Amino acid sequence: xxxxxxxxxxxxxxxxxxLGTKEAQEIVNDIKDYxxxxxxxxxxxxxxxxxxxxxxxxxxxxxxVHCISGTEGWEIVxxxxxxxxxxxxxxxxxxxxNPDERAVMTFEKVxxxxxxxxxxxxxxxxxxxxxCGVCTGICVISNAMLAKAFNPETTIRVLSKLCxxxxxxxxxxxxxxxxxxxxxxx
Length: 186
Ligand SMILES: [Zn+2]
Known about the structure:
By secondary structure, this protein is an alpha/beta fold. The protein has a single domain, classed as Rossmann fold, CATH 3.40.50. The chain contains seven helices and eight strands. Helix 6 links the parallel strand 6 and strand 7. Helix 5 (115-124) packs across helix 6 (136-150) and helix 6 packs parallel to helix 7. It is globular and about 40 Å long. Bound molecules: zinc ion (ZN). Zinc ion is lined by residues 47, 49, 58, 66-67.
């Protein structure tokens, strides 16, 4: 079984920084435990913005400067950063070096979902994709939907206890929306 765990946007700004929440802080160690024992590839995503963020569409609707490339807020949280070390993955070509061996990689993305991640899942024919991280109702749902669009025959499963959202209510709302789109909620 080819399995991929996607850890969405577990960056300082979303956990302890300018957009951090108690709920996000509470899932960090559980994600660490899950990722450490996961028997498949692991993809981290990083929300990535640049100077001029406030002039982007996202910045106009969410005028909180966050995840600026190269800043501390952009980095993966300290508890998980050791797990993000790239293994068996060529960042330039976004391909696995040896397709048959375990890989760990990071996809930087300028918006909620990563097209590169969706394409990557398709290229390697993952049979099961698991998602966790933040925010359930923004970047987790976006990447789950993208994964499903690129891979209709792949089981997409969101690990609800390893996700957090802006509010507990928006977390529940997002899980319901994903269920409706045949994403498994575990
Ligand atoms: Zn953002």
